[in-house]
Amino acid sequence: QVQLVESGGGLVQAGGSLRLSCPASRRTFVSYAMGWFRQAPGKEREFVAGISWNARSTYYADSVKGRFTISRDNTKNTLYLQMNNLKPEDTAVYYCAAGRTTPAKVYTDPSDFGSWGQGTQVTVSS
Fold first, then answer.
1. Residue 29: which of 77, 97, 88 has the closest Cα?
2. 63-98 residue pLDDT tens
3. Max CA-CA distance within the chain?
4. Residue (of 48, 42, 50, 34) closest to 114 by Cα position
5. In whole angstroms, what separates CA 95 from the centre of its chain?
6. For the chain, what percent of residues have pLDDT higher than 70?
7. What is the distance between the alpha carbons of residues 50 and 95, in angstroms, rounded to a whole number?
8. Whole-angstrom Cα distance, residue 99 to residue 88?
9. 3-state SS track over the chain
10. pLDDT (0 to 100) of residue 101
11. If we measure between CA atoms, which residue out of 60, 96, 64 comes closest to residue 83?
């Protein structure tokens, strides 16, 4: 288990940008594939972006491709999500999660993630 705490959410106008951060509590952060998920009111939690342990592989939901960028700094045990050109439909609680350590790849299924943060609210006004 690894403890995760998201930050960087807030209220932004459509077309604006936000950067989410998620520092991890353990140096073994480097071993984990990581991901960002989101959950809007009345909807199920959905995958947003994922990254392999070494950052060589990333994967995005079609709805955010070209607008969001996932990255990680293993020297700081921190995961990031840069969100540009935000849309009202991006409004949700955003969660970071630590996934499997092996095999080394990008994971997208919530069941492959064992540790979750508490979430940070992102609200995009039109």
1. 77
2. 999 999 999 999 999 999 999 999 999 999 999 999
3. 42
4. 34
5. 6
6. 100
7. 12
8. 28
9. CCCECCECCEEEECCCCEEEEEEECCHHHHHCCEEEEEECCCCCCEEEEEECCCCCCEEECCCCCCCEEEEEECCCCEEEEEECCCCHHHCEEEEEEEECCCCCCCCCCHHHEEEECCCEEEEEEC
10. 85
11. 64
Phi-psi region of 85 (alpha: psi -120 to 50; beta: other; left: phi over 0): left
Give the residue from 61, 52, 46, 9 showing the smallest Cα distance to 34.
Answer: 52
Record the tokens describing residue 27, joined without a space.
Answer: 């140096």
Query: In the prediction, which pLDDT does 100 show?
Result: 87
Q: What are phi and psi of 89, to 5 degrees?
A: -70, -5
Q: Report the C-alpha gap between 6 and 13 in whole angstroms.
A: 21
Extract the tokens encoding 34. 């990581």
Convert 19-32 to b/e letters by CB count within 10 Å (16 or more is b). Answer: ebbbbbeeeebeeb
